[in-house]
Write a structure and sequence with these properties.
10 helices, single chain, mainly alpha, DnaD, 2 domains, DnaD-like_sf, about 240 residues
């Protein structure tokens, strides 16, 4: 038991990206090619960057010809390449590299992310259409739907921002996309892009209104405290200053 444990520890471990295990099929790899990748990666991580084919074949219980075929398929799929490198002693030797495979994997993940974002965008657009139609109490025209689509595709407005602009239109009883568009443009000029920034703007506007109200109240209160000085009606005075009897 101790000997087996010692052998286990001496063999070491290897690191494999979970994303590769989850997406190797999308890269065009089958199970045999994946195992070959794992065997080569294990040797590379152990310090042998160009392991012998016969050794890898023995690990995989196949002959060398079969292994060469697997390698050739990985080369054709642009998942594996052999590069010549120069070590610190100036000697040149070949190494297996999977950089192309990882680049392809990252490209695949970006494609998936873009597809997900596109699906989210479609859902967001649908929600905006429904919300506006509900507040307007009618079905949107094709031109209006095109305008809303441009808010997303050209202006890149966030859905939450469009909903807040819709709220402003409803509060003002202005049931038109032109009003909503003016609100969005005014926010854009102020570099407002999120709901939190809109809330901050409203708080600032509320504070300014309160300050103006307080200033007006103070001015009226100060005016009310001033003594009223009656004006003498000189034209009807019995004895105006400087006049004769």
């Amino acid at each position: 038991m101790e000997k087996a444990l010692k052998q286990f520890l001496q063999a070491g471990n290897m690191t494999v990206a979970n994303l590769l295990l989850q997406n190797y099929r999308q890269l065009g790899m089958n199970e045999q090619e994946l195992v070959l990748f794992l065997e080569l990666s294990s040797s590379i991580q152990a310090g042998d960057s160009f392991p012998a084919i016969d050794q890898i074949a023995s690990y995989m219980y196949c002959d060398s010809n079969q292994l060469y075929q697997l390698l050739h398929r990985l080369f054709e799929k642009k998942l594996l390449e052999i590069k010549s490198v120069t070590d610190e002693n100036g000697k040149s030797h070949d190494v297996y590299q999977f950089d192309l495979m990882y680049e392809k994997l990252f490209w695949l993940l970006r494609q998936k992310d873009q597809q997900t974002q596109q699906q989210i965008l479609v859902v967001d657009q649908s929600e905006i259409f429904q919300a506006i139609e509900k507040e307007f109490g009618r079905t949107l025209s094709p031109i209006e739907m095109e305008t809303i689509e441009q808010w997303f595709s050209e202006d890149h407005y966030q859905p939450e921002l469009i909903l807040l602009a819709l709220r402003e239109a409803v509060l003002s009883q202005a049931y038109s996309l032109k009003y909503i568009d003016r609100v969005l443009l005014s926010w854009e000029k102020k570099n407002i892009k999120t709901a939190a920034q809109v809330q901050q703007l409203k708080e600032q506007q509320r504070e300014r209104r309160l300050q103006r109200q307080q200033t007006n109240f103070s001015q009226r209160a100060a005016a009310a405290k001033k003594p009223k000085i009656p004006l003498q009606r000189w034209a009807h005075s019995d004895n105006p200053a400087g006049g004769d009897d």
